[in-house]
Amino acid sequence: MINQGDFFAVLNKHRADAIVAPTMQASIPWQEASDRTELDFPVNNVMGKASSVGLGVALALPHTKVIVLDGDGSLEMNLGSMITIAGKQPKNLCHIVMQNGIYGMTGGQPIPAAERVSFATIAKGAGYAATYEFDDLEDLATRLGEALGHAGPVFITVRVAPKPRTAASRGGKPSAKVRSTGAAIAAFRQRFAK
Length: 194
What we know:
Layout: H1 4-14, E1 19-22, H2 27-33, H3 50-60, E2 66-71, H4 72-76, H5 80-88, E3 93-99, E4 102-103, E5 109-110, H6 119-126, E6 130-134, H7 137-149, E7 154-159, H8 167-170, H9 181-192
């Protein structure tokens, strides 16, 4: 398993000019780790919908790479989006699921079939152009660039260590780098207006 912070550091090195759309448990930590916050599109408080939002952004901006940072609990709530993504075949979309086997936002309850589900197998069966799975940091660091460079839609599973949200972790204020979904939408309208 890979520490989420280590994964974010590797992704940050390889993201280039890609839009990154993190959701739920990944949203604040990704924005705090990101070197390109102007290209981050947080998808907050919409459990299960990050892949759908990411697909919309990818279709609207076909010449811009879009990376969705999804959680396994979130993805299980909207598995149908994988079929929609495969049906549209956006060449610029990379869908990453951080698989930790729990609903991190609600205290760490196990997701259904946590020990058996293979999201990469589901993605392949749905028709994604390529799938990758990583559970080793060195392998991830070596091959993530290849995975992100593949024509999409690409699906990547990264097995991360569980880190459930606790009452203590809900306190405190995120850094000034973190912005709301509304603020991101306003900034994207201005940046990508035709």
